[in-house]
Amino acid sequence: MVPWAIRFSEAFSCRSSSAFVYGSSLTIGGEYEGIFNWMSVKYILSSSSGEAAPYLGALDLGGASTQITFDPEGGVILGNAYRVTADGDPYRLYSHSYMLSGQNEAQARHVKATSYDPWMSDRRRLQEAPGELGGLLESACYNEGLVQTFDLACPSGEGTCQYTVHGAGDFDACKNATDAILNLHNECLLEPCAAHGVYQPTPSGVQFYAANAFFYTVNGIGLVGWSETKAISPHQIAEAGAEWCAKPWSEIAGEYTSVYCFMSAYVSSLLEAYSIPPDDTSANNTARSAQLFLMEKLRVDKVLTPPRLQPPSPPMPPQAPALSSVAVTHHVVATFKVNAACTPALESNIRNQMAEHSGVAINNTNVTCATVPSTRRRRLDSAEVTVTLGTTAENAGAVQTAAQSFLESDAATTGTAFGASVSEPSVSQSAVSTAIGGGAKQDPHLHFAHGGTADLRGRDGAYYNFFSAPGISLNVRTEDATFMLHGGKLTVDGSFITEAHLVAGAGACPAEAPRGRCAGIYKKWLNVSYLASELTEQNAGFTYLRGTCGSLKPFEGGIAFRRLCEDALVQSRFSSANFSARGWTFVLRGDATTKVSPVLAGSPPRVQRLFCIGNHVYERVSGPRHRLDVSISAAEGTAARALPHGIVGQTFSSTSPRFGAKDWYPERGHFKTAAQAQGAIEGSVSMYEVASPYDTRFAFSRFDAQMRSFHLR
Known about the structure:
seven-stranded mixed beta sheet, 12 helices, ribonucleoside triphosphate phosphatase activity
């Protein structure tokens, strides 16, 4: 083994001599691995045939994980949504990575599941201690006559055990086992779902290109040759897999052949989970069915020209200008009622139809829906809907006319489009204020800087980054709580924000300062926490505000407190605390306010506010007694220099609204919140978790980045 000192020396040499900006590097998640794979496939198809499929998907199956990424035909993604630009064209992709679901991990899980069979005889039951295991484990996923040993972790979690498997060669039984590995019958909280109860939009009309272990498996069972790209149906894979599994091991023995029986069943289970139809080569196949192509590797000279699917082209109203995503200066607001209760499907459908018939980009279309409580006289469900269409001053009139014409058309037209009849439509327009803001309220409902909403169910006791910019980071803590709504008719299991933790550079370090006297480019680091648990029944407190200023003695305050940390001021009044200085201004407040404003040396003054409002958890059954509401606002031009990130912070870095998954509360009964802002944020909410209150490291952190001159897109 190479000594540690030599390895460190080599690493330091590479870092100091390389042009790579290590300070801006990060480890990408599996979702981004899938996106890069999708972009590679798109580039290869475009380079080889001059065009790619209008709705393209990429499947990757490695040893530890598997990824699915595609551009859905309808463009509606309620979770795991990503915005990318390829060849100058914007795309909105769905991408998800299933950890511990690659070829090697899936095999290991299958072998362990076989050993845990409760009906297994004592002779075949695993021993807990490390070492060789007694007896053989029978598996339907390996050819009859094959005896194979796996070195895997012992059931106790300590040491390595040898699992010896005897093959039985039964494809159908193996398929049942691989279905169980993917938990295809898990509860689906946000429909439709794929494996493990994970949300995935239906891939209608998508051409999927599958590589790596997908290809090696299908090649191994004889359906596709090397250096060949070929359309294959899941039904063909299942048939060939069944034939392969039925063969005795003595007939097919080879270096890699032992895995093909298991993998043919596992690939079939994956494709079923991904909603790729069993037989896309049948006579009943339509242009809207997903198709599967197997390709050996990502090489431009080895790709055949695939058949091109034609996307549907609905007619646009002639009076409505077709807009791409624009810098919004005006809003056209349409309000109306529908004879249906609010659901994610209804809201999504209204958004798509209003964008289409008004000629406005879907990214500039916002929908809010509120179910009207039923009465004895009116037993049918109904909802009040508000649609905000972002446009320009030049096109506002045409958009208003188009929207009004569509809503006031005959009932059959709007009823068919929305799936619910419309009444009392009203359309108006107004100029957009330059002020922007976002944040979270209640349990918590997110609202974003340039429009759009989503709900966030946090993990109990977890810390999430809400805002990350150069030299500034805000984390929040969520806790589970049970409370009642609608006069006690509905019991809700939800979560609330109960803590907010700010890290900020305070004071600019002078160039002549002695080494070790400053914290990087700042004189000191300011750490401040707002703890809702320290609020009293009167929603005030003496110690809800705690922090440090550099190496000085820690402080705490509440009711009336004031502390200056270089150019950052910390003060409080009643349940409010203010941290303020030049530049960024953060405000955490209960009934008053908190401001924190660190700034880079030489930067012009600019204003950014964060409000954290302490409140009671009303109608509480269990959990925390107080919560925080958070809101963030910025003066014009602030976000363009910092390009912030974080769950809410990222919405300041572009002018488009964000729309994510929401929880829809019933009128009565018991309800558990589940939405995690899918579709509104990059990646998944777990990628924003941090290890501790003041930790600034997460997948998209901007804390160590430099302030730059950018224009919002």
